[in-house]
Amino acid sequence: VKLVESGGGLAQPGESLRLSCVTSGFPFIFDWMSWVRQAPGKELDWVASVSGNGQVAHYSDSVKGRFTISRDNAKNTVYLQMDNLTSEDSALYSCAKGYKLGTFRGQGTQVTVSS
């Protein structure tokens, strides 16, 4: 199993970023996929999950209405569109195989929101 995230960086409050996670080594279409995040000194925090066919998505209350999770099963890739970012969204973002915290996570991509 391999999960490789990209798309992180520095954003100002109110701006947007789009994260990508390219996967390999497992039958992608059969698994829920998720995004999680961890800020320094804080616990791992679930962000969003999407079903195998992409039809069902669940979000944590902290990102609902601002973030959108999606997937392209032809590309074995899951995305996280993050809009209206705030400083509280600053964290290392990882994709996870499975629902919520999942069973396997990638190395992550850093998102920093600062003016």
Explain this structure to me?
By secondary structure, the chain is mainly β. 0% of the residues lie in helices and 50% in strands. It contains no helices and 11 strands. It has strands spanning 2-6, 9-11, 17-24, 33-38, 45-50, 57-59, 67-72, 77-82, 91-97, 104-105, 109-113. Strands 2, 4, 5, 6, 9, 10 and 11 form a 7-stranded mixed β-sheet that branches. A hairpin with a 6-residue loop joins β4 and β5. The radius of gyration is 13 Å and the shape is globular. It starts with a strand and ends with a strand. The model has no long low-confidence stretch (mean pLDDT 97).
What's the SSE blueprint?
Layout: E1 2-6, E2 9-11, E3 17-24, E4 33-38, E5 45-50, E6 57-59, E7 67-72, E8 77-82, E9 91-97, E10 104-105, E11 109-113
Parallel strand pairs: 2-11
Antiparallel strand pairs: 1-3, 3-8, 4-5, 4-9, 5-6, 7-8, 9-10, 9-11
Uncertain residue segments: none
Rg (C-alpha, Å): 13 Å
Largest sheet: 7 strands, mixed
Helix content: under 10%
Which percent range describes the beta-strand content?
over 45%
* Strand runs, count: 11
